[in-house]
Amino acid sequence: MNNYAWLIRREIWERRAIWLVPAVVSAVLILLALFGRTQFISDVPMESPYVGKVYLGFIGGLFLTVMMLYSTLYLLDCLYDDRRDRSVLFWKSLPISDTDTVLSKLLVALIAIPLVSFVAADVTSLIVAFIVSIRARSMVGGALWEGGTWLQMQGLWMYVIVTAAIWYLPVAGWCLMVSAWVKRAPMLWSVLPLLVIYLIERFFLGTHYLAEVLGHRLGGYAQAAFHGSWKVNDVTTTAWQFMDIRGFFGNPATWIGLVVGAAMIVATIQMRMRRTEI
Amino acid sequence: MAPLIEARNLSKKYGSHVALDNANLSVEAGRIVGLIGPNGAGKTSALRAMLGLTTYEGELRVLGREPFRERTALMKEACFIADVAVLPSWLRVDQAVDFVAGVHPRFRRERAMDFLSKAQIGGKRRMRELSKGMKTQVHLALTMAIDAKLLVLDEPTLGLDILARRSFYDALVNDYMDETRTIVITTHQVEEVENLLTDAIFIDKGRIVLDSSLDDIAQRYCAVSVTADRLEAARALKPFYERHVLGKTVLYFEGQERGHLSEFGELHTPTIADLFVAKLSRGAS
After folding, report:
1. B228 with B99, same domain?
2. B49 chain-A contacts, CB cut-off 8 A
3. Residue B186 belongs to domain spanning
4. For labelling, which of A116, A259, B47, B211 has a CA lying 20 to 30 Å from the CA of B237?
5. Do residues B51 and B125 share a domain?
6. Is A90 on the interface with B (CB under 8 A)?
7. A interface test, pick of B55, B86, B100, B128 with most A CB neighbours within 10 Å
8. Do B90 and A14 touch (CB under 8 A)?
9. Given this model, what pLDDT does residue B170 score?
């Protein structure tokens, strides 16, 4: 366990973007709130009961999107970069197993990066709401607490972090595998084989299996984890009702993904054991 | 006592390229062993196999362990410096010390700090800000603070200037080496490590050409400077290598009695570098 604490600390030392990226998003939003036009904010009917929901949903969604992009880039780079600069030879001279190394990177991508983004989103939403409330004399600050919206948002974030980590495990596993394998251009290699299979299927076999599977995995998360869409104008549905916990864990696709993802991670560890520098 | 490193029929292939071809070698505890060979001879492959960084065929035991399967356990008792400058550029000196202290049970922080302060390297500096020589000092500080039984060095001074090279080897011999430790060092600059070594292993084209202590080498091998008139008589004793130097011919003998050879001219014990050239040239002819 102690090793994991050090390995994760190591990632945070190396990848300052883990906190810099959300910090920049946060700074941009705060600057916009400070110096942007207040017109747009005052146009929103503040007395409407769903304003808090919309506001928190917007900020959360923004951080979530940025976080997912960064996590993907991180996964593609993390087992490639140290082979390229040969520092893998230093890390491998220490008594840390390749399993621990690979799992620590996975933990960083699926748990640490999302948690940092979550905290950043929380802090930012409060600061921006505070600034906007004063500047535009709006009630957005107060609306956050309406009907427990704020609390619901915290629960929603936690739910998203856990379920997205499970749902996207095969995607993360694929990225790690590419990162541990390729000699150059991990980003290109993460797409290229899939594109080739897709084209072969399309032009020679006339099928679309891969596209279907990929589309379902990449685009199907919201459908798998939630009941329909979150009706923002319906105050009676809470975030708790929105989460489809039973549906998510009862879905075979969740478990198939988990197994496929785990297999890819086992493969990644095996590659990591055999591949040193490029 | 079982040898610290023992390889039997160790082979490694990369596709059709044979990097190690049934190599046999053994390293006893308390020795400083030079693994010497030309570029591409299989030195690095041999070290990679010993350190558990690559798969291999044949039998290999390092500190009684199978390196590839048990790398993590092995690295608690063995450490290595592979080349120089493999410390990641973003890493700060104090972070490097903290990390190794955190994950290595045999690391003694005070030793590392002591060495670093002697080398006058500040903790807040990143590796990318340090010269190659200083980076090597940092790596050495980290490595020497680990109470390891085996230290493996792969071309440790490549790219360093002569001052840095000298201080590297001085630190190694004076501050690190004692009878409980064993060092395996690869280099193609034989002259530089010659007076450090207790043993030499020559490797060429993936095969072990020689595996011997320096004492044995001094007894077994002999070079004689022979003048032209005695050359034919000396040749009858079957030297394994000849070299022409300043009008004389130096003949290299293995296992010949010195008293017998001294009739032909001046005797001397070949240097490791000489012997290396002699051995490998024979292989080539």
Report:
1. no
2. none
3. 5-205
4. B211
5. yes
6. yes
7. B86
8. yes
9. 85
CB contact under 8 A, A92 and B51: yes
Residues in A closer than 8 angstroms to B90, CB to CB, are 13-14
Please tell me the total count of domains within chain B. Answer: 2
Q: Do B104 and A92 touch (CB under 8 A)?
A: no
What whole-number distance in Å separates Cα of residue B101 and Cα of residue B99?
5
Interface test mutation site (partner B, options A93, A102, A269, max chain B beta carbons within 10 A):
A93
Q: Distance between CA atoms of B194 and B181, rounded to whole angstroms?
A: 18
Any domain includes B258:
yes
The answer to whether residue A236 neighbours chain B at the CB level (below 8 Å) is no
Helices (H), chain A: 2-14, 17-35, 39-43, 51-78, 81-84, 88-91, 98-107, 113-135, 140-143, 149-167, 169-181, 186-200, 209-219, 221-225, 239-242, 245-250, 252-274
Q: Are residues B51 and B174 in the same domain?
A: yes
- Cα angle: B71, vertex B72, B77; to 5 degrees: 90
Q: What is the mean pLDDT of residues B248-252?
A: 88
Radius of gyration of chain B from its Cα atoms, rounded to whole angstroms: 21
Separation of alpha carbons B145 and B149, rounded Å = 12
Residue B210 lies in a domain: no
Interchain proximity B75–A3, CB inside 8 Å: no
Q: Does A3 touch chain B (CB under 8 A)?
A: yes
pLDDT greater than 60 at residue B199: yes
B189 neighbors B219 (Cβ within 8 angstroms): no
My answer on whether B17 and B113 are in the same domain is yes
- Which of B141, B172, B205 finishes a domain? B205
Is the residue at B211 inside a domain?
Answer: no
* pTM listed for this prediction: 0.90
Positions in chain A whose pLDDT score sits under 70: 1, 38-49, 229-237
Q: What is residue B284's predicted lDDT score, i.e. its pLDDT?
A: 46
Q: Which of B53, B88, B103 sits opposite A3 (nearest CB)?
A: B103
